[in-house]
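Q: I have two molecules that I believe assemble together. Could you output structure tokens for the complex as a whole instead of separate predictions?
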Amino acid sequence: MSRFLATRFALVSSVSFASVALLTVAAGCRNDPVEQAIINSLPADSSPNGAEHRAGQPCLVCHDAYGGATPFAVAGTVYGLDATTKALVPAANINVTVLDSNSGDSRKACTNAAGNFYILAANWSDLTFPLTPTAAGLSMESLVGRDGSCASCHALPGASTTGGPQDPVTGASRDSAGAIVVNPAMTDPNCMSTP
Amino acid sequence: MKRAILLLIAASLGAGSLSFGASSCITQGVAACTDASGNPAACACPSESVFTGIWPDGGPPGAAVSEYMTRRCGTLDCHGTETRPMRLYGRLGLRDPLETNVSGGKATTPLELTDSYAAVCNVEPEATQAAVEDQGASGELLLIVQKARGIEAHKGGQVVTQGSPGDNCIAGWLREDDSATVAAACQAAINGL
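A: Yes, here they are, computed for all two components at once.
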């Protein structure tokens, strides 16, 4: 009887040890406090996961090796201004071209109904920086130094927390260039045919 | 007794670290070094005019070192980030907290140029002073050059190749090359971006 109990105890102990070890390994995959804090600070989003979710948020926070979602090379959200209210509205069917200034290589993407666009990391494995993006024919004045998430620098109104004045329309502030705003009428016919 | 001695040593080390931390605390401007007489003085740094482009007489044609560095290094996702060392300010990047400008707004201000100059000089204040004292002979050994060339580990990777316009802009300033040569290199580097 006592032998049976000892065997059983040893078995339970082994399983417990293995479980703890597995949990530790799993937890170790998401132990970056900086990245995790950014993920935790993202505003809630009611739309279901998909190409139109979390518009205006820094995509690569989750869409990278740490976040675990399908990795992106570059992704962001493009807006237009409502003709009447002058409020930000998603700009759909806009052609976004991203040029790798080092190699001269480029990729194109189209914005969807939420204004979101993305270029999969798998489709640009040899990407280097800096990048020069163009949206609806408008080239970015500065360069993208290293962050593929447009919204890391192009924060929406109210998103910057460093204080100081903010542009009420775009949200441009001391540490943010504000939302990416283009003429929403500058759609690309090739984008419209994209399913 | 042994324990008491160890505690005393530990306490002394702690106090030493604290006093070092306090004396090397820099709020604004170029860090403090010591002059030839051993008195505290601002660390020497290569020409502020070549870096900022602010010249009493207009300066040479071309661009300032700061123009190239803020454009290539000072983007909002690199050295234009509040939490990153060698913080650079400029019109298309981070704006100075003592002013009320927004990114992409009004032109880079004199205060931003001065603060960027201090940020670059303060990466290695003593070594930068040494480069000034040896007339730029050790300028290329500074971290700014070594990181830009990708010789030292740099999160942003290799930014310039040795002898390229960008390299001649930054290293040329630190080597104290002729101001017209540096300005022309900086302009060529900007044109190539």
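A: One point stands out. Chain A touches chain B at residues 101, 128-130, 141-147, 152-153, 162-167, 172-178 (CB under 8 Å).
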